[in-house]
Amino acid sequence: MVKKNFMVIALDGGAASGKSSTAKILAKQLNLLHVDTGAHYRTIAFILLKNDIYPSNHELIVNKLKNFKIGSMIEGRDILMTINGVLLGQDDLRSPLVNQNVSSFSAVPEVRHFLLEYQRSQVEFAAKNGFDGLVMDGRDIGSIVLPKANFKFFLEADPATRYSRRALQGHQDAIVARDQLDSSRTTAPMVCASDAVRIDTSHLTLEEVANHILAIILNY
Ligand code: C5P
What we know:
Elements: E1 7-13, H1 19-30, E2 33-36, H2 37-50, H3 58-65, E3 70-75, E4 78-83, H4 90-93, H5 96-106, H6 109-120, H7 122-128, E5 133-138, H8 141-145, E6 151-156, H9 159-168, H10 175-184, E7 197-200, H11 206-218
Parallel strand pairs: 1-5, 1-6, 2-4, 2-5, 6-7
Antiparallel strand pairs: 3-4
Bound molecules: cytidine-5'-monophosphate.
The site of cytidine-5'-monophosphate has 14 residues, from α2, α5 and α10.
């Protein structure tokens, strides 16, 4: 059973638009569980690549998924996905090879289908574990994963700003190429849901973005 005032927030947006960092601030301020669905796709991509399976090897992907058992670990307000008991570190999840291939893996319908129920089950998990709600970030959260979310936001920023954010984090990332693949795939493309609030974060600090969202939520 989900409590009456339990809050579900969908936070979508392109690569390096500041979704996860913003979600972490919201999670702290509002006692929410934070689910980073990008990390789910990155985990799958890393393990498949490690097994020499590439996005074009459709049959091998489908077979491998049958042997993947999803689990979870809680770290503060973050829930982290494990596959067959393995939790990957940030260096692996954000490696250049994963950045290069993740969008092609995430366009495979079976990969999306494999993760969907797990992602949706996080609402119940958050409710049962004492959180006042959940904030989930990704590309299709407001449109497909949690279409009934209480609040939906879509973060945008100009490519130059996003490239410099990634460079500051020390990562190499083909941001525009990923966005293009993510928004043009057939299954659950990246989209700003029709009832989402669009926020351009190009000239805002993280705190300003979070405060803007908090003001909308708290004044609702
Ligand atoms: O958010 P992040 O940049 O870590 O996501 C990595 C990739 O995972 C995206 O480029 C996209 O291909 C995929 N993804 C997705 N749907 C989501 C979240 C991420 O397709 N809900």
